[in-house]
Amino acid sequence: MICFSKMQQIDDVIQLTSGDARRKILFTGISGGLDCFLVSTIVDKSKKPLLYIANDKEEAAYISNTLESISEGFQVTFLPDSFKRPLQFEELDRHNILQRTETTNKIGFLKGRPNIIVSYPEAIFEKAVDPELIKVNQLVIQKDEMLDLDMLIEFLVEYGFERVDFVYQPGQFSIRGGIIDIFTYGNEWPYRIELMDIEVESIRTFHPTSQLSIQEIGKIAIIPNISNKFTADQKVSIFEVLHPSTIVCVKDLDSLVDKLQMCFEKAEIFADSTLAK
Question: Taking the model in full, what pTM does it have?
Fold first, then answer.
């Protein structure tokens, strides 16, 4: 674990990138955007994945944007909580669910290759669905293969997708003749599938407003809404999803502990109020 804190001097950072021994390292004198350059360098030198836990959502978003602009050769992804506002469990946010699902999937896909995940206490408190479980429950559609349209509609409805005239947000699909548009919970842009009779002729992403194509794709995986498809016992701590070699970097360890305690307390209050209704 790396912690940015004014507590004591740090050992040489090279120690972190050598061997597999677990170490706790405290950095001092970190100011401005120096932490982002430090994190990017650690991932570049160690060739390991890294989870950066900021103090709050706004700081995490800022750090994520900064890392994206300075990091080369590896991905930077943001892991939000699923709600419109942190700890407001009553209101889910589809965009946050999309981004959280996409990030969780990337963790499984990258399998320990160097990358940076940026998050914050409320988001890491929330449990995640194991990528392997998502993989089992997904539907794969591939170019030049046969597609049963009735089976696809049944699958989408069962997985909580809404049929609309035109898709504009995650969880929607539309069918117009041989054109199928699907906005999944695991991709930033919706997919457009074109059929020739029952054969998949083409798959591409497109902009939902302009309807312009973005990228041709050979294969896609449609996954369900993780917020309501999977039960609580099918979800695990985000630390169980992370690759074992992942370096954990904490902005302020004391603040993290306090906020996680607050998360537990608010979650218990919400659970009690839900049971009382």
Answer: 0.73
